[in-house]
Design goal:
Blueprint (H helix, E strand, L loop, with lengths): L8 H12 L7 E6 L3 E7 L5 H5 L4 H13 L4 E2 L5 E2 L3 E7 L3
Parallel strand pairs: 2-5
Antiparallel strand pairs: 1-2, 3-4
Length: 96
């Protein structure tokens, strides 16, 4: 049985965000690494912030649940290196 490559959490968040917004070219995901956690700063066009957060924060919460589920797995980067984080957090940056 071959092991499937794990996807980069930043790529996952970027894919989800680009699928939800009206201005996909404005989506930016900046990873901020610390020894135990990975914080993903998500920036979108100011007109699309509501689409990312969702009604009552439902979409943002769902993305955070996905990140929590994959945080226990090791992440295999494109260059073959492995990383593992105790937590992968999503920070939606509102620059308004």
């Amino acid at each position: 049985m071959t092991e499937a490559r794990n996807s980069d959490p930043a790529s996952l968040v970027e894919y989800i965000a680009r699928s939800l917004v009206r201005n996909p070219d404005d989506v930016q995901v900046l990873p901020v690494k610390s020894p135990a956690s990975l914080i993903l700063e998500l920036r979108v066009n100011k007109d699309d912030i509501g689409m990312i957060i969702g009604k009552g924060g439902r979409i943002a919460k769902a993305v955070r649940v996905l990140l929590n589920a994959i945080s226990v797995k090791k992440i295999i980067l494109d260059d073959g290196r492995e990383e593992r984080y105790q937590k992968v957090l999503l920070e939606i940056v509102d620059e308004a």
